[in-house]
């Protein structure tokens, strides 16, 4: 792995820096203003939220939080360029607070897809996926918001559904028959589940900022904040109720609490800044919780066994289905109620076209990307080494600090001292 | 547990959504402005701060952070309604940034009480406690701020003392003689103490936002920020000094560092936006640290053994005593110095009445709530199953990831492979 | 330790409170405005960022996050006084949002030095180091910004290089020949490395706020934000590439990912608000990553073995070398391009003088401080007890929660039950 990864990373970074030198300028008119805190909230979601959410696997914490950081750090640079090209003026991309929010957004698609293939791909593969996915994302986003003129302020469609179906297509192409039976590393420990809750909570808490950050006016921003806040709250209560209902002997499942509680943030995204009423937001959130729990419980096993779609983190249930629900909610709301932004009237037809094109482009783009990732020099790992940090990281002995005595005891008694 | 919890949760959520549909509207005049970051800080305190602070128990991390999330997610919805009813206009509750800050605040009372009964109650009991406590809190807050016209910007009385004495009354009513001797699960591990420090730090850091979020003007807000900042700093140094002084062989105690360092934030709450001078804030903080350390060290064992008050997290020392200290500081400051807000003169008599009514209502409300929680269908657990996640959660094996060899060794040598 | 620490801490705190009573006033004209979120970001960096970054040692997590909190809580009070004396008006220090940002900044120097001596010093020693270092820092900062009129908005020189070389001088004076061979506690575990990533990420994420918080105008602030954002991103990709390149069998090293990814934030500090172009920021970040990785890999072992400088956290590679790089970048940029602030023209000569004086004062101040720390009543620990929380903390048994069965099994089979 040494040379393939290092060369890919350094070449991509040098190209990116050169492109920045040619094309990128400050937006000299910009100030941090009241928007900067929204950026920082989104920034925490991308690196801490996504990063720790994926640390639930018992031996894959370093990769989850580390490769998440790598993908996001590279993706935000590439995203600046790709999104900037569509908005460049005089051949220059002008960056300010809004640009870096959008750059963070664009990385979210790759991080969602990373969740689908988590544990089964190499860091070099992830860099290639990032550059391809961010590029395709920027094109689809331009199509949805500029050409179709659909609304998607919280990006239920353009980020969540896109990232999920892109990742599912990648993981389908990279299908590993050897993982048909559950891999021994594909489970959590008590502490890895605790670490994952750090990710869950920071995603949950800052989601109102995510859904409102790029709203066109403060009056829309406040609606997006309030709607997301109540949608998530309703979704969380419903998720706990259903987790107990479907769980063994009525017990809560950590995977559901870590993930399905967030579905309300995804699903309310498209309509977040519309006048759907807090009541409407809570209905969307509640339905999202139901869909997500049922998806994890019934659909994921079927996808894996029947359709050969091995979705490590269940991104289909957290981002895919709730993303589609958000898109459908957008169609319904624009059909019922006239919603405008700066003389653009949102129509249900265009919303439907946006949803369809997003999923279509994501599936095709993901499948092609999966094909590229099969290139041998990118260093696919063997089935046996999946979900294991020690393939890519120097991993310390997992030892209990305060057990010197018992360790010594073992040495005396002839037991294995690595215990 | 399956049906009782799920039914309670779903029924409460459906009722809440219906009430939102009838009563709640956006506050269309509101914008995020400079207040929104204060909301996000408070939001982190409620979910990450309180949630992780309680993860110190070795086998109760899932419940601490998970049920904390459940209580807060439901409580903020119910708090919106209860607080809103006192401020409704034309039969409508208008929600904006200030409302969601207040909604978060109202959940804090239930989370403090949750700390008192931690490990000894079921999730269904906690939902019932939340709905009752948030309702009573909203009434007492209306009494204190609108009828008595007392000042309590950082809610030393209305949130901290209220939540603590409410919780202590609940735990007294739910007294378990079987836990007279320390339960084997009622202790921490090295890592659970580390997780708890995440909660401590986020509470500590964002407390200036908590105490200043609803200040009436920016000039008062800045005083609340500065006072809280220095009160916490002084409290922290004093706590370390006293922890060493009372500890075995001069050693620091994690429970004190996790909790007593925060007492300065509680105690300065009532006076936070008054002109008490940073010097005054530091004196309050220092005294709060002393009271809290002594409370943990000497009072909590007595409360448990003599008064049958089993206070799992020691909320009496973190929220109860420092809350009273804050109330008393408010009496003294308003007696010494004329302090006004919008033509209301704060008087020491009214401050004392506010403190007394708060504690009285909390004790009575908590006792009644404790009685309700004894209803059998709410699923009280046995003494033996206390402080144990596995009663309510699917819990993974706690295994050390990188010990495959030693596990294999054990299998060969005939030892129990679950080790 | 009991009395020496407690007495030192209480005496220092009482003196500090008295000095606050005499000298400190509110800045009544201040409001939180749009600056307050920057303060909170910096605040999180100081307590969560630095605190958790240092938790990587397997038995030193309590001390890392706890003593970090103690140093910062005391240091911010002392820093308020020391920085305030240079800006006092009419014998009074006026505190507002900018003051508490600067107070937090001044603690960063002591926290960086703490990293150099981590595991080898007592809490009382750290309080003495803090008071001395913050005092000397405030003088040097005054020299650099007011007398030399150099620019250093993100404090590459005055905080990072200063804190690093101060700490290296302290650790040199406190040299322990007994630690020449690696101490058995001086290593990480899987979970301690995960905790450290919490620190890394919060530092990484909020660094744009650190570098822009005290910029003179919003237009400079936005440049500082954008430059730091892209510098860190480039540094991170380069760090991953080099970590793989120098690592055993191409594997990533956690110590590099935890630390060297941050070097881009340090190095871009001096020039952050200058018009260096995002391209220039990325070049600085990339070079910082290279220097930092090479420093950790090649230089730190040499410093320890040849120069008797035992740098526990490698602050030389994270703060020292990148800080110098930042200073040099400042010299180059001011030589190439005319940069002004409020009629002050920054000159390369003054930038060089600022860098030289900072390192010189840090080395001399650190050496003197190291001498003071050798005073016997401050309670230096033995070599054997280094890197061990249990010397200063009551430490719980590190036990696996869900192994009751296996524990019982062991009891039956006669094995040590403390296992």
Q: Specify the overall morphology of chain A.
A: globular
Determine the most extensive contact between two protein chains.
A-B, 72 and 69 residues
Return the string of H and E elements of chain A. HEHHEHHHHHHHHHEEHH
Largest sheet of chain A: 2 strands, parallel
Oligomer: homotrimer
N- to C-terminal separation of chain A?
Answer: 30 Å
% residues in beta strands of chain A:
under 5%
Helix content of chain A: 55-70%
Q: What's the pLDDT, averaged over the residues of chain A?
A: 92
Report the count of strand segments of chain A: 4
Q: Count up the helices of chain A.
A: 14
Rounded to an integer in angstroms, the radius of gyration calculated over CA atoms of chain A is 22 Å
Structure description:
- The structure is a homotrimer of 419-residue chains.
- Chain A is mainly α.
- Helices cover 67% and strands 2% of the residues of chain A.
- Chain A has helices at residues 2-23, 36-53, 61-86, 97-117, 123-147, 156-173, 190-212, 218-246, 254-259, 263-267, 277-306, 315-336, 348-373, 404-413; strands spanning 24-26, 93-95, 340-341, 344-345.
- Chain A has a two-stranded parallel sheet. A two-stranded antiparallel ribbon of chain A has the order 3-4.
- In chain A, helix 1 (2-23) packs parallel to helix 5 (123-147) and helix 8 packs across helix 11 (277-306).
- Chain A is globular and about 55 Å long.
- Chains in contact: A-B, A-C, B-C.
- Chains A, B, C: This is Ammonium transporter Rh type A.
- Chains A, B, C: The chain crosses the membrane at residues 7-26, 38-57, 69-88, 100-119, 157-175, 195-217, 229-246, 279-299, 319-336.
- Chains A, B, C: GO terms for molecular function: ammonium channel activity.
